[in-house]
Amino acid sequence: MSQATLIRNARVLDVRAGAYLDHAQVLVSGGFIAEVGDDIAAPDGTEVIDAEGRALLPGLIDGHVHVIAVHPDLGAVEDWAASYVTARAARIMRDMLHRGFTTVRDLSGADHGHADAQAEGYIEGPRLLFCGKAVSQTGGHADMRPRGRMHADTHPGCPSAGIVCDGVPEVRRAVRQQLRTGADHIKLMLSGGVASPTDRIDSTQLAIDEIRAAVEEADAANRYVAGHAYTAKAVNRGLENGVRSIEHGNLIDQSSIDLFLRHDAFYVPTLITYHRMSEEGLEHGLPEDNHRKVGEVLGQGLHALDLAHRAGVQVVFGTDLLGDMHRHQSEEFAIRAQVQPGIDVIRSATVTAAKLIGYEGRLGEVVAGAHADLILVDGDPVADVTLLARPEQSIRLIMQAGRIVRARLTSQP
Q: Checking phi first, is residue 58 left (phi over 0); if not, alpha (psi -120 to 50) or beta?
């Protein structure tokens, strides 16, 4: 068993209450939080870390990433060797962890091999919850073929983000295949998107019976369905038919908000990716046709988030970055701070995200029994959540499952 660690003199953030427990101590043992209080009797030999009055938060959760999106041209990545893509994905995962993201939800592309390699210590990175390949119709958001190509590589080892299916039997088979490999969730492409070559953003994708079939299969395995969608029409089709989380949703309206609340569903905006694709996508290799699509959704994203937040929709932190633009991951905090109080942005990346992924009480909170995923932050991120947008400056310690990933403290008795 690993050595116990006592973090003392910390301001522990109760994420649910939005308040700090001052001069607190946290005892970590065996990868879990054993005790939180103000006077803990630590076992002999316990390592002691003095937080020096800094804020102690749960490790961050990014609810929408693609770790194999190692280049913005996702169609080109499909032709690369899976081994090469995985090597680059490992660096992306390491960098995520070093920003304080101790858990991420991959929304297509990563598979059980990536998740197992991280869990077993072969890849340093966040705890990885994966869906395998997203389910897309022909010509849908995960169909990366240019117009002139008729055939697609359907080998499961191809480093692609999705699988093309048409009709209920094919959808059922595809969903069952992802579940067979241990998928934590299923993803459906319910509308067009920016990164795909042949679809319109305002299109709706997958027939109602196909959506229902996928939801039925996921539910049978005690899993849930996430849906990529932009327009209110596409979002509403998903919510009305059992999709639990909506990804992006830049073009939602009040009808969508009503459905989120009625179905107790989750909303996962990904605002930073549109800003970065607009500013630097072309220089990093985003095809021009895809770059032109960015403007169709960029301006409406913040309004959609504001609409959802004001109505009390369960909002989860997500980024959805591609290639070298992954380095901007933490800047999502600063964008959301324009319309949300700091504590609500923090909740979106902790307790609310944990609820979505089925880890409520085990991630996203500094409580006894939870995984010892912790970050120590200079300043007060509740008062100024943009501190988390600058992790290289503000985050002084990162711990994952009781292991210190990075520490920059002036003293460590």
A: beta
Question: What's the CA gap between 49 and 89, in Å, rounded?
Answer: 32
Amino acid occupying residue 254: Q
Which single residue is written with the structure tokens 């301001």?
A: 11
Query: Closest Cα to residue 140, out of 115, 94, 171?
Result: 171
Return d(Cα 406, Cα 395) in angstroms, integer.
Answer: 9
* Contacts with 23 (C-beta within 8 Å, 6 or more apart), sequence order: 9, 10, 11, 38
User: How far apart (Å, rounded) are the C-alpha atoms in residues 133 and 375?
Assistant: 31
| Alpha helix positions (H), 109-206 | 112-119, 168-180
Q: DSSP per residue over 352-404, as a string?
A: HHHHHHT-BTTBSS--TTSB--EEEESS-TTT-GGGGG-HHHHEEEEEETTEE
pLDDT tens-digit readout, 104-137:
999 999 999 999 999 999 999 999 999 999 999 9
Predicted TM-score (pTM) of this structure: 0.96
